[in-house]
Every structure is written in structure tokens, then in C-alpha cells.
Amino acid sequence: MTPTGSTTGTTGPARLDVEGVVVAFGGLRAVDRADLCAEPGSIVGLIGPNGSGKTTLLDVISGLVGPQAGSVRLDGESLVEYLPEERVNLGVVRSFQDCRLFPELCVEDVLLLTQDARRPVGVLSSTLQAPWARRSERSKRAALEQVMGSFGLVRFRRHRIAHLSTGTRRVVDLASIVLARPRLLLLDEPTAGIAQREAEAFVPLLRRLHELADTTIVLVEHDVPLVFELCSKVVMMETGAVVSSGTPDQVRRDPRALAAYLGASDEALAVSGAVPVPSADPEGDAVAPAGGAAEPVGE
Ligand SMILES: Nc1ncnc2c1ncn2[C@@H]1O[C@H](COP(=O)(O)OP(=O)(O)OP(=O)(O)O)[C@@H](O)[C@H]1O
Ligand SMILES: [Mg+2]
To answer: How far is the CA of 266 from the centre of ligand 1 (A)?
Structure first.
């Protein structure tokens, strides 16, 4: 079957339905009959202890891993026949952590590159300055300026990626995502590896991303309070299976979720505020950028 279904070319946030997905790696069931549904335009949080299958489930949705059983549908249409790159063309976008791959490029060039990856204009038409290429260049510029303004990146325009703090690089990642025009965005631990102070600043940034990109989001995060604050729905996994699903309040009160949550890693519990951070060092900022006040995160 050629993937030429009705989803192609559709705009606006997509609906996602995952049903009964099973992924086994040898004898290990990494995902065990997992269900997940995201209404168009919603933010669904996917939480659970280390190794519970969250990333593997995102891999199934983006097409990197083929499930042994179950279905993934976008606006009702099965994605089973679509390759990962074809899913990208449908607007299924995984979080980029790619800007690290271009340490010598400046912020503006990385963002332009992201746009080109999703909106190619032929080399020949660009060289000859064909009218459609010029129009495309103009609209690319306009989108770039808007996104850089919205994410406080204008003054970093000419800064090289290698010189940014981890937190600011993540903001560049978020800006790239908006420019990729996702209809379904899969974010895997966007705050991993950044300081708690900067992670807190991610709530308004992710809200801005959601608003600007006008997309449905599935967010995997170990920062449970961030998930509860941001998401209209929370799905909790444990050893591959969904053990709780509902509004943040429902999941927060669900004894099964609590059990899985208490079984989470020390790191997850510490970051969640469920237990005190052992010998917390208020100055122990992993990213602690020199002149951090000038960075967009934490403002
Ligand atoms: N390619 C693979 N081959 C074999 N086992 C794998 C592979 N990918 C993941 N696993 C295993 O599948 C299980 C689920 O892994 P997964 O990465 O999906 O968990 P996770 O919930 O994302 O964990 P974390 O919170 O640590 O990121 C783990 O036991 C992991 O070791
Ligand atoms: Mg993971």
C-alpha cells in the first residue's frame, strides 16, 4: 500500500490514537499493550520510572521502532505503512537535539537549516531566483524573525551554538521545532541535563511553543510537577504497561500511579519534589552559564 492517505497535506493539530502497542526486545517487553490517546491541540504527559517504555513508545509513534502488535493512528489513519521520514512529512516531529551537531554554526543559520529540511526549495530555482523561490525565502525569513523574537533569541542571532549554555541550546531546539511546523510533536525529556532553575523556566517556554506551533504534544518528562502543570492529560507507564491515565488530578490521586511513582528513580523523585534533594546545592547549576542573566532561559 502506498501511503497516500487523507492525512497528507492536512493542517492544524492532529489527533493521535495508540492502541494495544507491544514492543519486545528479545525476551523483554519494553512496551506491553500500551494505549494512548491525544486530542487535537492537547498536551499529554507521559511519565514513569526509568526503563518503563516511554521512549520506545515515542519511537513506535515516530516509526523508528515497528511494534509486534497494536496500532498507531493519526487523525484516524493508520501510520503502520509510513516510514519515519514519511511521518515527518505528515507533521509527526520528534524533538530535535540536533543543534549540538552544528557547534560551529550560529543560531540563525541552524534555524534556517531546520526550515530548509522541511521546506526544500530546489537549488536551481533558488539560484535563478525564481518567483516561488523568492516568495519562499521571504516567508522563511518572516517565520524565522517571529520565532527568534518569541523565544528571546534575537540577541543570540550570531552566537555560535558551541558558545551557548545547555539551557539556551534547548531554547534553540524549541525554536527549530516551531519552524518544522509539527501537527504532532513528540518531546522526549526536553529538560534533561539542565539545571532545576532553567527547567522551571521551561513551563512558559513550552506553553509558547504549543501556542506558536499550534500542535498536539506528547511530552515525556521526569519532572513530574512540570508535567502536572502543563498537561491536560497524564499517562503513566510502568514496566511497559500503562498503569494510570487521566487528568493530572486523577493520576495524582491514583494509588497505582503513586506506587509506580514511588518506585521511580531517586533522580526523578528528587526533581519532582516528592523527596528532599539530598545535600541540595543552590549554586550547583549544571549549566551555570557565564553571564547567565543574558540567556533566554531563566528570564
Ligand atoms: N534497542 C533496544 N534493544 C534492547 N532493549 C531496549 C532497546 N531500547 C530500549 N530497550 C529496553 O526497553 C526498556 C524500555 O526502555 P525505554 O528507553 O523505552 O524506557 P524509558 O521509559 O524511556 O526510560 P528512561 O526514563 O530511562 O528514558 C528498557 O528496559 C530498555 O533497556
Ligand atoms: Mg527514555
So the answer is: 18
pTM: 0.81
Whole-number Å distance between alpha carbons of 184 and 214: 9
* Distance in Å, CA 54 to ligand 2 centroid: 6
Q: Which ligand is nearest to the CA of 51?
A: 1
pLDDT digits (tens, 9 = 90+) for 41-50: 999 999 999 9
- 48 vs 89, 236, 285, CA distance in Å? 30, 5, 25
CA distances 70 to 17, 23, 76, 180, 242, Å, are 11, 9, 14, 28, 14
Q: What is the pLDDT of residues 202-240, one digit of tens each?
A: 889 999 999 999 999 999 998 888 999 999 999 999 999
Instruction: Domains for the chain: give ranges and CATH numbers.
Output: 14-96+181-274 (3.40.50.300), 98-179 (no CATH)
Q: Verify whether ligand 1 is closer than 6 Å to residue 52 (CB atom).
A: yes
What DSSP assignment string belongs to 237-263?
EETTEEEEEESHHHHHH-HHHHHHHHT
Residue minimizing CA distance to atom 22 of ligand 1: 55
